[in-house]
Specification:
The complex is a heterodimer of chains A (379) and B (185). By secondary structure, chain A is of the alpha/beta class. Chain A has eleven helices and eleven strands. Chain A is 40% helix and 16% strand. In chain A, strands 1-2-3-4-7-8-9-11 form an eight-stranded parallel β-barrel, surrounded by seven helices. A two-stranded antiparallel ribbon of chain A has the order 5-6. Chain A is globular, with a radius of gyration of 20 Å. The termini of chain A are close together. A seven-stranded mixed beta sheet of chain B has the order 1-3-2-4-5-6-7, sandwiched between helices. The longest helix of chain B has 14 residues. Chain B has seven helices and seven strands, in the order ββαβαβαβαβαβαα. The chains are: A alpha/beta (379), B alpha/beta (185).
């Protein structure tokens, strides 16, 4: 199994709680410099620990992830770590111009000499407030945009695109991508739609934070769609992402986990006011395909939203927390159920700021006790 | 007795004017296509105790409140005194607002959904008013209107009516874009 390091560049300055969007007045440039410098030191430590790839992802308006454009950071990482595969997992495609994304990744693929892998994702619900994009269109835009990006990378003559959501009359991407036919593309399989889309079009899939059992259902749909399209995915086509926190003993790891217990995954987009939180929830419902309906709240002081059928909740699994043996056992169980060929680990705890020194200790212990096991033939 | 200029039907929007006094602007006319717009002539200008009395005299159980320029100061005072009546608050180019600690402390307790509208080229108000209000009010949004100075309604009437109408209609869900982007099926 490959083990990949997910670097979020979580702001190392003072923790001001979980509010999205966070006021930029709280951001201190000196601390941003420390966050990036020490964050790249963590990347170096991860490679020293035996991690196989350095990965980044797009998120906005928050100290939880200083990566509004992960492509910039991927380029820097590629210059500093010259032999390391670099992953951007990924771009929130529906809120970006897909042709611009194709151009930026094509440039990056050249800078990295073909070490690039990418993901085309829909993003978290709050991202649809970032640039005022329609969440109900996220799935169709992501699918069309992904196919358009691939077309940008593979088409050798200038071309146009008359899509359902995108219209271009003149495209010719320079530089051309290094990899042939193009850098590998990963699609989120957290939804059944995503899994089937990836299978139909020959893309990799990624699961994030869900329980292995919940992922398994979508993995089966992926294989089924791939078979219908005439190909067979391997474990290397499947990535699984989660947090990891390892210490010498279970008690020590659990103590840190309890001490840093934050708001969990959904703290990524906890808003300051309940009404803004409800708006973000509405984005999530829109992404899940809940009918938008007619909306007139002008006579209501505080709407009890949503009153429509709730989308199925995402089944979040616990992070890997414990001693090396405990973490290995938990990953073994994941492997038994899901069998991913690539495990992407974020050395931290859900959303909570972690001191740099603690992250370095975790990476060191992972390198000594965990990563070598995951690299063994049994996996 | 309070003088009111009124137009339209629908959810009531009580408008507290600025120095220009009560008048149905083009922007208000556009809002009145969807809402009941009541522009209140404030007795004694924007003297605050009188404002509460004047708006109370309208006999509305609940209403959307829109304060323009110095009227925004009156609207802020009103919402801190009678938050239960105010469904939403819009502060257009808030001027003559004494943002001292006493007022800020009161505003931090206001959970009424609030839209702060500022012209991006308004050089007549303290440019920190908008950000300070946004930072203090826990359920507020700050929005700059491009190509507008102090008279946002006059400079961009369609934009004003569009964004205020969307906010009145959808509350904080106006942060969510639900416009159809489909080019062709």
């Amino acid at each position: 199994m490959d083990v990949e390091f997910f670097q979020t560049f979580a702001y190392l300055g003072a923790d001001h709680g979980s509010s999205w969007p966070a006021p930029s007045s709280l951001c201190e440039p000196d601390m941003v410099a420390d966050t990036f410098n020490l964050g790249f030191d963590q990347c170096a430590a991860a490679l020293e620990a035996g991690f196989d790839s350095l990965n980044f992802a797009e998120h906005h308006y928050s100290p939880k992830n200083l990566t509004p454009n992960p492509i910039i950071l991927a380029a820097l990482a590629g210059q500093r770590f010259t032999d390391t595969p670099i992953g951007v997992f990924g771009t929130d495609l529906p809120i970006n111009n897909p042709v611009r994304i194709a151009e930026e990744y094509a440039t990056l693929d050249n800078l990295l000499g073909g070490r690039l892998r990418v993901a085309m994702l829909r993003g978290t619900p709050n991202e649809y407030l970032t640039y005022f994009d329609n969440p109900w269109e996220s799935r169709e835009r992501c699918e069309e945009g992904t196919l358009l990006v691939r077309r940008c990378w593979t088409e050798t003559e200038p071309f146009g695109w008359e899509g359902r959501y995108y219209r271009f009359r003149n495209i010719s991407v320079w530089p051309r991508v290094v990899q042939r036919p193009h850098p590998r593309i990963l699609v989120s399989a957290n939804s059944a739609d995503g899994a089937q889309f990836a299978g139909r079009h020959g893309f990799d899939i990624g699961f994030s934070y869900m329980t292995a059992e919940a992922c398994r259902r979508n993995l089966d749909l992926y294989h089924q769609a791939a078979a219908e399209a005439g190909w067979t995915p391997t474990p290397d086509n499947v990535q699984y992402r989660h947090w990891v926190w390892v210490a010498d003993t279970d008690a020590e790891a659990e103590e840190v986990n309890a001490r840093h217990a934050g708001p969990g995954l959904f703290g990524l987009f906890a808003a300051a006011s309940p009404e803004t939180m409800a708006a973000i929830g509405r984005c999530g419902a829109g992404m899940a395909g809940v009918f938008r309906g007619q909306e007139d709240l002008s006579g209501i002081a505080f709407p009890d939203e949503p009153r429509r059928p709730a989308p199925p909740p995402m089944t979040v699994g616990p992070p890997f927390v414990g001693s090396p043996d405990t973490v290995i056992a938990a990953i073994a169980e994941l492997h038994r159920v899901l069998g991913p060929g690539r495990l992407e680990l974020h050395a931290g705890l859900p959303v909570t700021p972690i001191p740099h020194e603690s992250t370095m200790s975790v990476l060191k212990l992972l390198g000594e006790e965990v990563v070598p096991v995951l690299h063994s033939e049994a996996w | 007795m309070v003088d009111v200029t009124e137009a339209g039907d629908g959810a009531p929007i009580v408008c507290l004017p600025g120095a220009g006094g009560p008048r149905m602007t083009r922007a208000f006319d556009l809002l009145a296509e969807r809402f009941r717009v009541l522009v209140v002539e404030l007795p004694g200008g924007a003297d605050q105790p009188d404002v509460a009395e004047a708006v109370g005299a309208l006999g509305l159980d609940a209403y959307h409140l829109l304060g323009t320029s110095r009227g925004a100061a009156a609207a802020l005072d009103l919402v801190t005194r009678h938050p239960e009546r105010v469904i939403s608050l819009t502060l257009e180019t808030p001027a003559e607002v004494r943002l001292d600690e006493e007022l800020l402390a009161r505003l931090r307790a206001v959970t009424t959904r609030t839209l702060i509208l500022v012209g991006d080229s308004d050089d007549t108000i303290d440019p920190t008013n908008g950000p300070i209000l946004r930072g203090a009010m826990p359920n507020a949004v700050l929005l700059y209107v491009y190509n507008a100075a102090h008279d946002v309604q006059g400079d961009r009437p369609e934009a004003f009516a569009d964004v205020v109408g969307d906010f009145v209609r959808r509350g904080m869900h106006f942060l969510v874009n639900d416009a159809d982007g489909l080019i062709n099926p």
